[in-house]
Give the backbone structure.
Amino acid sequence: MSRVAKGLGKPAAKSRPGRKPAARSRPGRKPAAGGRPTPAAAKPAPAARAATPMPTGLVRLLDDDGMVARGKDPNLAEPVLRFLYEQMVQVREFDRRMLMLQRQGRIGFYGPILGQEAATVGSVAALEPRDWIFPALREGAAAMMRGLSLTEAINQLIGNGADRCKGRQMPCHYTFKEGHYYGMSSVIGTQISHAVGAAMAARIRGDDIVVLGYMGDGATSANDFHCGMNFAAVYRSPCVLFCQNNQWAISVPISKQSASETLAQKGKAYGIPYVRVDGNDVLAVYSVTRAAVERARQGDGPTFVEAVTYRRLGHSSSDDPTRYRDEAEVKAWEKKDPIDRFRAYLVRQGLWDDQREAAFKDDIAQRVNAAIAAAEANGPPADETLVTDVYAEVTPQLREQLAEVLALDGRGVNEGAFPL
Ligand SMILES: Cc1ncc(C[n+]2csc(CCOP(=O)(O)OP(=O)(O)O)c2C)c(N)n1
Ligand SMILES: [Mg+2]
């Protein structure tokens, strides 16, 4: 019997502290054929309780100069504040260096996150380690925050023999099971349904976890968004659906993506509490995500978060944004830099200064250098990985095809341009 099915019969799991008892089966729901109840009939979503009042407007704690209005400071503990800042600085440096590697032809592709550091770092930090992350393209920092080493991340970007994906995935599609970081799907929006479903499965199993599922603004136009949001709401999936509205979906601006006044308000149509947050304000992102995670964990269902931010570089290393957007727009967003804002706050609190900054940046530069050297020392994936892991045993046909490929002239020659 599968673990899921076993979990269905465990009444004890329903009475964990902080969880509401499961509501009774809905009328008309019958056990599936064979006497095994359907997940929904066995353990339906908890009944709705009075809606938690959600903040309205754009939630912002840090102003442009890193000041917090009196009485609004979430007063996070010093180690948390430092962690948030250091992770943001680290991912920015990592990003810069990886884009350079791509330009030098040492990796094939890269999706930069410059400008979106607060949205990713602030939201991931609001989770407990047992919670799961379903990322989109720009949340690689989440895997590193969960312990994926820089070398392992670069192994993935190179697609070498030490890569967990054995070079089979595009760069930036990290996967890190131990860190509860699910492998990203390139197909826009699909991870929304995956996140919603994984959270539902966790509840059925009695696992006290929350799932944080990311998407971009462009993903809100995908079918999977509507399907995922609806499922999440109806089944009160313990998840947080987090939209990084970076204003662009490759060359399509947000104005051509949606006619809604905000993306956040799309939650209303599905019956999901929603909140719009300044995505360049790490304190605000942390606070709203934390509240959403707590709501999900205590059985109050999903929350839809729109983090308003900006993608300052191209969609990817293959994109030239100067062909479709005005540089003045980019300059305006540079002034709202999430790291500068948060550093000003930390400096004012006496938690950071120029000396610390220099030492920390030096340390990251060295760690990134060492990680690049270690990753580049790894050879390519073994030839057999072209055909392994599809069937339990490699079929004779696949063996034959592999032999044919290996016998081709020009084997091992880099064909040149990455086709993306
Ligand atoms: C279903 C599907 N359609 C189109 C694409 C091509 N595509 C890749 S990224 C992208 C834009 C995504 O924009 P957004 O969701 O805003 O995320 P961002 O890249 O801005 O982080 C598109 C259209 C795809 N990967 N999947
Ligand atoms: Mg976008």
